[in-house]
């Protein structure tokens, strides 16, 4: 419908005027290896028997849209640390507009529970 296109084109954003704005979470899903089976969560981190995978439903949608050729933007927050840098870089590298991505303040560890 032409009217829908006109409405989208008249909307403005600080950056590229994406077709879809995705607001929510981006995170690492940490998946334990089989060798870690039975270990309590308190011991798992120190063993290194887990692998971080970038995820978060909203970030996954923004990334999938960009890969399919639909301009998308992500609005959310990441930490001011190496993990935050990696997640931000990954979104940008896949073509997601990160103008509305914010950084959490420095000073505390990330949430892990």
From TrEMBL:
GO terms for molecular function: ATP binding; kinase activity. Belongs to the carbohydrate kinase PfkB family. Pfam families: PfkB. It comes from Trieres chinensis. Gene3D superfamilies: 3.40.1190.20. This is Carbohydrate kinase PfkB domain-containing protein. InterPro entries: PfkB_Carbo_kinase (IPR050306), PfkB_dom (IPR011611), Ribokinase-like (IPR029056). Keywords: ATP-binding, Kinase, Nucleotide-binding, Transferase. Coiled coil: none annotated. Residues 19-103 form the Carbohydrate kinase PfkB domain.
